[in-house]
Amino acid sequence: ISFARLNLVEQPFPMAGPFDAAFCRNVMIYFGRDTRQDLVSELERLLAPGGLFALGHSENLTGIRNNLEWLAPATYRKPHGSAP
């Protein structure tokens, strides 16, 4: 596990990935739709196939283009077979 400060608005992110999980809980509610779209696209790019993406319970991906599978409220997974 690595912890570091990251500006979520500036993409591409400096890390290489792939990551098994990304937790973006209670963050996206503060961004507009375009910024949320960019953020989800960048995190999806960095996730390993089968990787999990967790949002806050008041957040969802409605209206955001993505290829993530819904698993449970606020929990998504990048499909296996997807490029890392």
Question: Brief description of this entry?
Answer:
With 84 residues, the chain is of the alpha+beta class.
Explain what you see.
With 84 residues, the chain is an alpha+beta fold. It is built from 1 helix and 4 strands; from the N terminus they run βαβββ. A 4-stranded mixed beta sheet has the order 1-2-4-3. A hairpin with a 2-residue loop joins β3 (69-72) and β4. The chain is globular, with a radius of gyration of 12 Å. It starts with 18 loop residues before the first strand and ends in a 7-residue tail after the last strand. The model has no long low-confidence stretch (mean pLDDT 92).
Q: Which features characterize this protein?
A:
26% strand, 17% helix, single chain, 84 residues
- How far apart are the first and last residues' alpha carbons, in Å? 19 Å
Cα-atom radius of gyration: 12 Å
- The topology string of helices and strands comes to EHEEE
Class inferred from helices and paired strands: alpha+beta
**Number of strand elements:** 4
Strand content: 25-35%
| Large-scale geometry | globular
- Helix percentage: 10-25%
Low-confidence stretches: none
The largest beta-sheet arranges its strands as 1-2-4-3
Largest sheet geometry: 4 strands, mixed
